[in-house]
Amino acid sequence: MEALKNTRLFVPALPTLWPGMLLGRGEPSGFMPFSAPNVRWFYFARNAVWLTVKMLGLDKGEVLMPAYHHGVEVEAVADAGATPRFYRVGSRWDVDVEDVERRIGPNTKALYLTHYAGFPGPAEEMRRIADKHGLPLIEDCALSLLSADGSVPLGTTGDIGIFCLYKTLPLPHGGALVVNGPRQYSLPEPPTPPITSTLSHTISALLQNLELRGGRFGRGLRGFIRSLGKGAVKAADIQRVATGTQHFDRRHVDLGMSPFARRIAQAQDLEAIVERRRRNYFFLLGRLRDVSPPLFNQLPAGVSPLFYPLVVEDKAEVLARLHARGIEAIDFWRHMHPACDASAFPEVMQLRRSIVEIPCHQDLSPEVMAEVALAVRGALTQDRRTRKHAG
Fold it and tell me: Taking the alpha carbons of 229, 358, 252, 338 in that order, is the dihedral positive or negative?
């Protein structure tokens, strides 16, 4: 036990890229958005949000959005000319559909539903409300690629489905906008991004895989290659369009998805990815439920979890301990967008103070998950001891 405690892991927050994926040729996928007949591919999902506002003529009107949000999607809506308004989300990521309907006013032009970390929101109920008031429904599936509500794929109930690919798949970038229903829109084909940026992200994902698979040797080699690469990037003045950033940048709104990234996506075994993510989530659920009450006591059919939402009392302390063990846990959505009145949504503010992302993606074996669970338990126990002594 002591030897395990002192061993540094490397557990990346996102899946890494195997070299063989650069050459693989997969069959057409039955998962959304790959199976959608009317889809446009983007560098970022936020680009699709911006274009949706323009495409549906929502600018100059209001879009009713969840108070529990990342913020970049709110920025994209506002930058496109619409005014974001907010509705209540409860302590279990549950949308208050009655509050949604109460907040619909004469300037409301669309409803916006976010599916959190693969867990489905009330799409059918939101569809009913949208139809009752003659409004389009936008489904944000940026955190829920490959997920379904039972047998209904997320992103197919709304008029628009928006997806982010690189959070779930080992891609350098990628987002998608799907138009559901018979109505057709004339959408331009976005230009491909700079090849230097795509290659930079690809190499980074390959190096992460090297460290994940290669242990101490892989860690050292990755560090050496990264040090050389940083110098080369600086010398060549390569402009890298970063993914995972916190803010919307109008300069990148027209960027599309590269054929190279789509090729890697096509090489993935998506059914196996869903199976592994579910396996890893169940593993953590079984080993952590006694030390941290789970946000969800079960994993519904069809859900492909993006991560395990760990409920903690002191985010900073737990994150510091996990990072020290080499686990790339993430402070999930701590900050509210300034347009949203934090005092009006106390349950959301409590969520922002308490949820930590624990990786459970397809790259992680049962052996690694056992070490992750042990490290999380240790971090929670130490946190409680620290607070007890401080009190």
Answer: negative
